[in-house]
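Marked as duplicate of an earlier ticket. Keeping the data here for the record.
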Amino acid sequence: MTTFLSTAVTRGAIFKRLFVSEKTGSITVSNGRTLLFFALCLFCSNGLAVESPAPSGQEVPKAWIMPTPWVGNGQSLRDMINRGDEWKETRKHIAGVGYWPYLLNQFHSDDEIREFFAKLREWDLGFGFEVVVVKGPGWIHLEDPKSTLDAKSAFAMFQKFAPRFQALGMNRVDWISMESSFIAARTGIPIDQIPDARPIELFGTVKNDPDAARQIAYGVEETVSYMAMMRKAYPGTKLGLIEPHPALSLDELKTAVLGIQKGCAELGIKGLEFFRLDLDWARLERENRPWGDVKKIEDMFEENGIPFSVIFWASDWPYKKEAGTDTPATWREGVLHCAKKYREAGGTPAEIVIADWNWTTAPSVPDSDPDTFTGSSLEYFKAFPPASWRERP
């Protein structure tokens, strides 16, 4: 089994390219020398795990970008691969690029994927996957549209893609984020289709909502099951969770995440290594909810030792698109607005993700144009450099 290496080992200034020999337990550096590193690794039955250092509240947040996969069946990523000279400035600010495995598999040829991973190595950029664990009826990748997706079938789906990616040059995955398992359980699956699950500790308003308690308990059981399979197969890759707000409340998020951590501890596996908030700030403002609620969510995760990250995106874009009031600047303006309001609320993220899951038609390059995806990302980094989130009192 090929082992995915963590950022702590593969992104050092000394080791630009590392290849692991599972026979010798050594790292082969690109110049041909071999360094023993038994002290850095722990051996598992099916691979070699490399531990990441413990996160520190004083570390500069790492930044990742995820271009829209939809328009032109992956055209944004395709342009970023083929026109790398046109977004050099943006690359100076990021740790890597994230994408969706089932869409990378569906939209991109072998040659494109091979070139993608080769470019990531050339640019010394990391890579992450956003995956699904739980989905309700009607999800586009279900063979039976009336069925639901659970942990076992989701892991099997990922395992179908992984060998292709590995054969085409994927020698590392820094993180795998599990996307919206709990909002799927809460709103995407009819309550009468939610299987019974082990009871979990409930917090706040969830104590008085039997349906929410049942749905979240199911989400916890499936997420822990998925994590157990991933930990065994890919022990060196960080695992985290993405969930939305305000679609899920602080009490729902706390119930879900602490349930996951307890379930993982009972299995003797590492729990969540990060939480990533998918913030619909346009709905937050439309419903006159305070931005301080976002800071309360951040504080809850930090208090429980889970690094907190925020997805910066133009959540007002879909509303403006529907109303016909969107402009080429809408995406950039929305991303910057989100960052401004979150900073004013006292936000101090451990990680930054600029991700476009919309059908935005703006091109991804060049970054000299502030209205492209990489250009708007560059404008964000100019206004909110990653280090600036730690420089404030």
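See parent ticket for discussion. The longest strand covers residues 238-245.
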